[in-house]
Amino acid sequence: MVGEERVARYGMVIDLDRCNGCGACMTACAVENNIPPAQPRVNERTGLTSMRVHRASNHRGFPDHEEVFIPISCQHCGEHTPCMSVCPQNAVDVNPLTGVVSQIPARCLGCRYCMAACPVHARYFNWFDPEWPEGMERTLNPDVSVRMRGVVEKCNFCHSRYQAAKAKAAAAGSREIDPADYVPACVEACPSGAIVFGDLSDPESDVALAAKSSDAFRLLESLGTDPKVYYLSEREWVRRLGGADVTRDSLEVHRG
Amino acid sequence: MIPRNYLVFALGMAAALAGGWLAFPRALYRTVEQPLQFSHAVHVGESVGMACQDCHSLAEDGRFSGLPKIDLCAPCHTDPMGDSENEKKLVESYVIPNVEIPWLVYARQPENAYFAHAPHLVLAELTCEQCHGPHGETDTLRPLEQNRITGYSRDIWGRSLTRVRNAEGEGMKMSDCSSCHRDRRVRESCLTCHK
Amino acid sequence: MKTNVTRRDMLTLGGGVAVGSMLTPAPWLLLDDLAIWTQNWKWIPVPPKGVRTSQKTVCSLCPAGCAVEAGCVGGIPVALRAAADGAPLCSLGMTGHHLAWHPARLTAPVRVAASGGEARLTAVPREAIVREVADAMRSQGRGTIAVLDFRPGRGVSWAWRNLLAGFEGAAVIPAPGSPGSGLRAMRGFAPDTQGEWVPDLDHATAILSFGAPLADGWGGARTRARLMDGTGLRLIQVEPARSSTAALATRWIPARPGSEGAVALGVASALASADPQIASRCEEILPLLERLTPERAAEIAGIPAESIFEAAQMLLDHPRSLAVPGESFAGGRFDPTTELAILSLNVILGRIGAEGGIVTRAPLADPVDGAHLAPMRELDETPDASIGVLIVDASAGEEPLPWPSVARKLAPRALAVALSPFAAGSSLHAGRVISVPAYLEAIHEVPRACDVAMAALSISRPLLAARVGSADPASVVREIAASAGVELEGDWSSTEELIALRTAQIHRSGVGRLEGGEAGSPDELRDAMLEGARWTTEPVYHQIRMSISTEMAHRLATIEGTRREDLVVVPRTSPDAAWSAVLSPLFTKLHQESGLRREGGVAVVNPATAREKRLRPGQKAVIRTAQGRVVARVEVDHAVMPDVIELTVGPTPLALGQSRNRVISNSLDVCGSSGTGWRCTPAAIEEA
Amino acid sequence: MDKTLILRGVRRCSTGRFLAWLTPWTLLLAVGLFALGLCLVRGLNQTNMDNRFAFGLWIFLDLAIIALGAGAFFTGFLLYILRKDDLRAVINSAVVIGFICYSGAVLVLMVDVGQPLRAWFTFWHPNTHSMLTEVTFCITVYLTVLAIEYAPILLRNRQLRKVPSFLVFEGELHKVMPVFAAVGAFLSFFHQGSLGGLYGVLQGRPFAFREGFAIWPTTFFLFILSALATGPAFVLVSTWIVSKVSRKQLVKPHVFSLLAKISGWLLIVYVGLKSVDTLVWLNRTAPQSGANPVQFYAWQPFATWLLFVEIVLLGLLPALIFLSAKRRQSMKWLITGSLLACGGVVVNRFVMTIQTLSLPTLAFEPFMLYWPSWQEVATFLAVVAYGVILYSLSFRYLTLFPQERELQRGGGAS
């Protein structure tokens, strides 16, 4: 059985020159994954955004000022995944068949050690009980369970969609999913087609080819955690934003 | 002669053991009657000759229909075929007003668990009985035993409180799933069964 | 054995119990079950269970009318995505199915009493409101009758015009804010043209855009796509901010807000001196153009003159080029003179009626032919204090609109009634609100806005049962008519029937075609459209020679006097927030839970301006204009042009638990002055 | 009743005064327990922690008091294993303090996690790679050991002694106490270390990440050493405070100087190694992970001064004080030194927890600070109050300082 199952490395490439920061990926993510809306007291630091679009700029004066929008979700690190090794009770693992890093709310005890470990702050804690306006809970996505207060959550490449694709394939007697059936919500929603998603281990796939581009870079690559989310930009200053050598200067960036 | 305090100690222990083994299990589960009685035996038997799949079907897209909706019963039961009280109730209080029957599901998995029938039926070629037992031959629907604290059906935990003497296909806890997966050398990870 | 029980006995017994219970399942099961209990807390919502079905409809939240595929469970949409071939939905579209349950949703007609920033709502029977309106219409005592229509071109819009037909001075006013509401200034050149003047962007190879948000969908998906691919389309964007369109443009000209007219004339001047044939087309303004040289214009706009020459050159080089004024999402359209200046570029280039130029597009067939209709009138053509009865039709959505610009037109004792699903936006300003179905709760008509050359119509099919207490807009028109004793034309009583009549008319007219569908009979056409098929027409090309009249020359001459304001306020909002008075609570992800979007009421200024005005980030500041004052939170951003205040405009999502009756204070209200739109307003700012 | 519980031959203040002393602490405890309740019932939104500051005041102070509580096991280790019999004078007090520190820390941890009722998952589904698993196991086991070490002290109470079986039990316990001391010491070495490991292993945080030996980053060993070094110092301080509060001499002066001497030697070693580690980290480890070490200290308020304070002012200085035989004779110097040393370990834990989280990792993220909410502060104060109350009771009714009786001078408050 093991033999038959193909091993994939799902990942994405995000073209920062195409992203115009409309935030459709964030909304799509929230809708797909039953992420509750904010309580009044919630702010930028306590929000729940498995996909979050950050703003950065070349911090030069008008009109030379340029902005770049950087969508950041879990980077699904492949090598000694920081969050996985620290979780005391195996609520985090890396799926050997997909390379997707999981976060199981039912197992999580909310110690938040994984959040301290995550270099890109892509993990979010449920500070509040999830709550929707009366009646709106009927619009929740049946394929995703709602997280309770006191646990950590993060992007899992819309795994429920992968499951659906698997089930569809299985019903047809196959173990291979049709790539067209598995597209994460953020990828599907991006109006500029800035996000390419697919199996990095398939050298022919668009995502694998894009990842090989000379404009491709990853966030904090030097930490050696082998993220599976790549970014593209023709602008040198943008590519430099991915580095770990945080300079005071680069932090003068205005954040919206 | 045994010292008094030993006796007292033993007494306390005995009481605790009795409570823990006999009273507690009864206290832990509440039993809820099904809204309606239904005989799988009759429907599967010669007279009707249905198969599991006729009511619990697997769709094109791999989604499992679960329990049949009322419109599946309606065609045959527009008005009572026999003289059973239950059928009368079915027709009068469900079919005619076209209301869904609020069945209680024995094998309902928790919200955080993901289970797809498709791979188990088609790829692994499991039979219904292997997990659901001889449910298809039952003549009545037993009441649902529901855990007062968790709300789970007793079937998830299994009959035996210690889970040592669980029969084949009894118990639907994570450990049961993964032990079967281990036997069949299925490579699994958290997200295989959790959503 | 003694029988009196000592304290020590109790202890020993307790010990026994303790040890004993450890040997039973009880403590361990309790431990386990308690943990499982935390995984299934009663107060955590459980998503709906059941078979998943897929329904087709069309998004009616904005004029783009995207085809939608809705995944439903138990008949309720749980996921909206673009239909197979369509472009992805925007944030507003994706969360459209939440709006029916929005905290501000109205489930009964109400009377609104504003008190201290809060609006108190009291339910009233619809009949009462209808009678009130009807009486006021009959007596005519208060002034003229008007309908402010946020989505002109629908069957219901026609019904309003039909209702008002008999009344002296009555008119239907298209809401001036709505992006793509037509190149009205063209009417100056050809007053008696049928249909609307529109830019043929899809066939243009070079565009000189004055702030048209092409990258955000204005001008249609095709233009957007061409812009994204960066092939085959040259774009020069004249805009004060480096918007996403400016970022994609071949060249961005950061002209000061308010100087666009001057830039246009500067380009014209460059063109005229470059090509005598062009000069011949603008004799009337040649003297003006000699004075308003590219250099002079550049000076007014605060840009290098080269960019003006470059723009002129591009227009000359490309046979299929045009200059287009685009609405900003919060700021609406340019004032008529600026629009005239921009459009005259096309006139003098001879691009009117040409492919890839400015063309007319066939009007959509009305539900009933040759009915008596009240005229359409622009808001700023309406005399102040003249409207006695105002009906605000926000039943299909509404755009940001500074209410003072409407209030100014109202007579002292005027009666204002709104049709809206929500207690938000303009409905809170009108004294009475008739609750109508929200998106997906009723059938809606989506006529394509006038930013593309192809007229189009699609129909949004309801997926949800309408809430009790919400009335079908068309039947409200009927009720008013009946109560006011007006005879309406055509045999219809509901929006659905109006649409049926209209599709039949369209089918009869034979003009246009059905995208993604075939239709033999009128019914087939309607059914196909209910399934998401869209009916479109092709643009009409026949070149017209036009020239600039003396009267226009006089108006254009005023541009020469454009003076450089020390500080102007420019309203901003995000494209998807510009179409609805309310947003799904999930928009908190963008506005509250991340730094991506600013909420409404934030004044963003350049660091230089901040220094000059002694403003610190985060502090509150008062912005004063001719319209009034507003308090806003200051933010500092290099992206903003010096001496410009970018004022963010609502709606911002109601965080959970916030009062649903709160009047979302609309910072837009300080923008604009009579007649000239509210894109750019002279202002003063100081710390509060 | 109260009097009959007090050991014969020692003077204790009147019941009234004792209650008067307890009252404010009890109130504090009550307030704290209320705040704690809020956090449990309403959730952690009652705190000011956020997604960046996933750890806050609580984790910082837990690490600090656990380090200070190290006095318990280390004194035990010196006494039972290395046979430093002079320390018998403070061992009981040290054990009680250790017990208080650890039980308090565990209590706070239970509030700090989002789902306390699932805490036992760590034992049922442990991830053996996680430092936190190591911590959880060691601390729970060691807390039990401390309880067992506490038992004989408790059982030697005047009334409890009357129960023959207790007396027997206590005697037996006493025989095996060295074993527990050994076990305790072993466990403590481990979890003190793994607490350091918690941060040292954070590959995603160049500021905290350290290379190491086998699976253990250098912070593992540095935490052990710093805890060992400050443990005795804290015993010293606490004993001194108690004798001030109770206005009694409780141990002979040479015990103090012995503690100081031990602390001194360990401190000097620690400071040495810590300096080496810092240099290696700044010049090799951090650059290797692509970070720019200079930037770690480019941020106010946590600039280089903090590094200086931690290593020189609160490390080297007390070490030198302790190592000079002359200074050791003066109580003033001893206390100053001890306070400095304890401060050093606290600052070190602060740097590892709070500063690590406040520094950005992504070039476009801001430097952040956070202030604890009153609920966080109150909850922690509850633990302090609990400690004071438990210690006061122990001091009043149990024998924490065997030498007290012989040193008996005029009575006073307790």
Explain what you see.
The complex is a heterotetramer of chains A (256), B (195), C (688) and D (414). Chain A has a four-stranded mixed beta sheet with strand order 6-1-8-7. A two-stranded antiparallel ribbon of chain A has the order 2-3. Chain A is built from seven helices and eight strands. Chain A is globular. The longest helix of chain A has 13 residues. Chain A is of the alpha+beta class and 256 residues long. With 688 residues, chain C is an alpha/beta fold. Among the domains of chain C are: 50 residues, N-terminal domain of TfIIb, CATH 2.20.25; 166 residues, Dimethylsulfoxide Reductase, domain 2 (3-Layer(aba) Sandwich); 125 residues, Barwin-like endoglucanases, CATH 2.40.40.20. Chain D has a single domain, classed as Formate dehydrogenase/DMSO reductase domain (Formate dehydrogenase/DMSO reductase fold). In chain D, strands 1-2 form a two-stranded antiparallel sheet. In chain D, helix 4 crosses helix 8, helix 8 crosses helix 9 and helix 10 runs antiparallel to helix 12. Chains in contact: A-B, A-C, A-D, B-C, C-D. At the A-C interface, helix 1 and strand 2 of A face strand 3 and helix 21 of C.
Could you outline the blueprint of secondary structure elements for this entry?
The complex is a heterotetramer of chains A (256), B (195), C (688) and D (414).
Chain A: E1 10-15, H1 24-32, E2 52-57, E3 67-72, H2 82-86, H3 113-117, E4 124-125, E5 152-153, H4 159-171, H5 185-189, E6 195-199, H6 206-212, E7 216-217, E8 229-232, H7 236-240
Chain B: H1 4-28, E1 29-32, H2 40-44, H3 52-55, H4 70-73, H5 85-95, H6 117-123, H7 128-132, E2 144-147, H8 154-157, H9 174-183, H10 190-193
Chain C: H1 7-22, H2 25-39, E1 52-58, E2 67-73, E3 76-82, H3 91-94, E4 110-115, E5 118-123, H4 126-139, E6 144-149, H5 155-164, E7 171-174, H6 186-189, E8 196-199, E9 206-210, H7 220-229, E10 234-238, H8 244-248, E11 251-253, H9 260-274, H10 276-281, H11 286-291, H12 294-301, H13 305-317, E12 321-325, H14 336-349, E13 358-361, E14 387-393, H15 403-407, E15 410-420, H16 426-429, E16 432-435, E17 444-447, E18 456-460, H17 473-484, H18 495-509, E19 513-515, H19 522-530, E20 534-536, H20 550-560, E21 568-572, H21 588-591, E22 602-605, H22 607-613, E23 620-625, E24 628-636, E25 644-648, E26 681-682, E27 684-687
Parallel strand pairs in C: 6-7, 6-14, 9-10, 9-12, 10-11, 14-15, 15-16, 21-25, 22-24
Antiparallel strand pairs in C: 1-2, 2-3, 4-5, 4-16, 8-13, 17-18, 18-20, 19-20, 21-26, 22-25, 23-24, 23-27
